[in-house]
Each structure stands twice: as C-alpha cells, then as structure tokens.
Amino acid sequence: MTVMEIAALLGEAIKKDARIAALNEARAAYEADPQVAQYMAEYNVQQKALSHQVSMPERDQVVINSIQNRIDELYNLISEAPSFVALNEAQEAVNEFMNQVNAEITYHITGEQPCTHDCRTCGGCGHSH
Fold first, then answer.
1. CA distance 7 to 82
2. 38-75 pLDDT, tens digit each
3. pTM exceeding the 0.85 threshold for the entire prediction
4. How far apart are CA 4 and CA 10, in angstroms?
5. Among the residues of the chain, which ranges form H helices?
C-alpha cells in the first residue's frame, strides 16, 4: 500500500469522526441562521458605506464614526450568536483533533513527541513558556 493510499484511508476515517460531523452540522446551522444572515447582510452594506465615506475627498468624521460603531455592533451581534459560537467551538474541536493526528504522524516519522506547549505531556521538553 502506498503512502497516498494510506492517506486516503486516513482521510476517510477522519471524515467519519463525530467531530467532523458536528462541525458540518454547526456550519449548516450557522449558514441557515436567519438572524445571522440579516446581520451579515447589514454588515456588508455598512462596510461598503464605510469604504465609500473614507474614499471621499471631504470626509465626514461623524458619519464615519457612526458607520464604524454600527459595524462594531454588528460584529459583536454576529460573534455572540449561538450558531456562530457553536461553529467556533466545533471548529476548535476539529483543529485540536487534527493537531493530535498530525502529532501522531510526526511521532511515527521522527520518534519524538512534538511539544504541545504543555510540558506535562512530554515529560519536560525544555520549551520555555
């Protein structure tokens, strides 16, 4: 069996992991969230308005500040939306999982456990924290 064939099998096994399914479900819920879609649409409009305002020869700082404040508010509304929070949590779980997979592969290539920046996991690698 070639390395690429084994990589394909690994990819298929990873795709079946519950964390990948959870990420896909979270992404679908986020993309289907009508409130987030509304915030995103307004966010994009406000971004265009801000770009237009800052490109004008005579800038109205009050208008620019008002638009920027609304953009900041929309950003917070989006990032605090339950579907966005769930998506981020699911993505973090997948990232951690993939880091573990990569660490395992690295171990089998080099014979050394990669430093995870938590020296309790490697018995004290000497990495400065």
1. 35
2. 999 999 999 999 999 999 999 999 999 999 999 999 99
3. no
4. 10
5. 3-15, 18-32, 34-55, 61-80, 82-110
